[in-house]
Amino acid sequence: MIHARGLVKRFGDFTAVDGIDLEVAPGEAFGFLGPNGAGKSSTMRMIGCVSTPTAGELRILGMDPVREGPAIRGRLGVCPQTDNLDPDLTVFENLTTYARYFGIPRAEGRRRAAELLEFVQLTEKSGSTVDPLSGGMKRRLSIARAMINEPDLVLLDEPTTGLDPQARHLLWERLFRLKQRGVTLVLTTHYMDEAEQLCDRLVVMDAGKIVAEGSPRHLIETYSTREVVELRFGDDAPATYVEKLAGIGERLDPLPDRLLLYSDDGDAAVNEVHRRGFTPSSVLVRRSTLEDVFLILTGRTLVD
Amino acid sequence: MDGTLAVFNRAIVSYRRLWQASVFSSFILPVLFVLSIGIGVGGHISGVDGVSYLDWIVPGVLASTAFQMAVGESTFPVLGDFKWVRGYHAMRATPVRIADMISGYQLYIMFRVVIASVVFLGVSALFGAIHSPWVVFTPFVCALLGVAVSAPTSAFAATIENDSYFALLFRFLVIPSTLFAGVFFPVSQLPALLRPLAYASPLWHAVELCRAATLGVAPPWPVAAHLAYLLAWAGLGYLLALRAFRRRLSD
Fold first, then answer.
1. A88 at interface of B, judged by CB pairs closer than 8 A
2. Mean pLDDT per 10-residue segment, chain A (304 residues)
3. Of the four listed, A49, A87, A235, B82, which is most buried by Cβ atoms within 10 Å?
């Protein structure tokens, strides 16, 4: 579906995407994970054929995005980072007017609009204008709109950013259904849990480059340990404990507020901390997540 | 063509939701103008160029209504679709081409202008201000004027980031044009030095064509020359809009 070799995007002196290779297969749910400014959205815009690559090779659905942009876009569904729904039109009209952009006949557009509103659970809001809808509803409408042309490939740029937990879970559930139907999903996110929930495979991006690639489980197994212990020591700086706890677990990462101790056996590591005579003010043993992978790979947390 | 019609369709669907808001400026205001100035002021003067002031001013107000509507509909709505609503970005993600975005909206401008012209002419006919069957061409003249000013205004709206530029556009171009381009008094009454400014305004050419048509007289320049001037504005404006939209939507 997507094939990229040495893909580069520059804006003047700034290199947003710095030579990345990608391969996305049909039916896959593929994620770009990384902090703001990592180059995720720039990559998505090139895949969506609205931004021209500065260098490198890019094929979308086997076509050239520069020469065959309209033909490719006709088979893509795009859910942008910033909602661009028509606020004065009704929910239903937002879908039917958008259907016409793809040359879908009126009656067929109405049929699909009704079906998609059912799918994103907005049938009751069909006649309402968009303005009073909640953020989660708008996002669901954007997803319904992206599906109006029955696309082969759906691009979702930070689909749940800014939504409350309930709205996020509903959205994830809908996206999971799409995936089950065999729709290829490509999404960007800076939420670890989102990537773990939705993606079969993902790349971690930082400063325009791909720093790791694989399934969430593979990334965690490769770059992190099975468990992570979070230790807090009251008012003491976590960094001062790095030396004292040296040798416990695989590695130690001092953050400003806590010390992360990577170990395949968290409880054993905690016992060892106590045995050395230290009593942290709080101890949390948890499973390793993609957040840990990102921290290990870049030395920074994702929250910026 | 499909893309152009799809963009036109979106504008029409929006208009159907919001048309009430435009009734006053599109239909009622021009009629009030004709009543107050044509009949009120006209009652105190003997007429212009041998016709009653009411008859003389009706085609002017007709064209200036089209002019203001076309400019107005190409300012905030166009900038808004780049900045706030981001409707052009939504279209950009589909097979719709940038040329379709502009053509579709120009089609909508023509539609709005023709509807407003026909309603205004209907009311004017009731006051006996229409004197020639050539009047049937005036909605088309107004549509052409609409594109001649809407296309370059769209280009301008696609170039700026801040809506305060629109105040300058109205203050220094739209209002002076309305006042001095032969709508309320003949351009021949302007000092010779200022007349070329009136001739430069597309509004003047449309006013003269409409006036010739409603009164059944010949316009000051050959009809083809007036039309060519308006077409040049429309064509050049379209190219400028294409360039401005491309710059804003591509990287």
1. yes
2. 95 94 95 89 94 96 94 96 93 98 97 95 95 92 95 93 86 89 91 86 92 90 89 84 84 87 90 88 89 81 57
3. A49
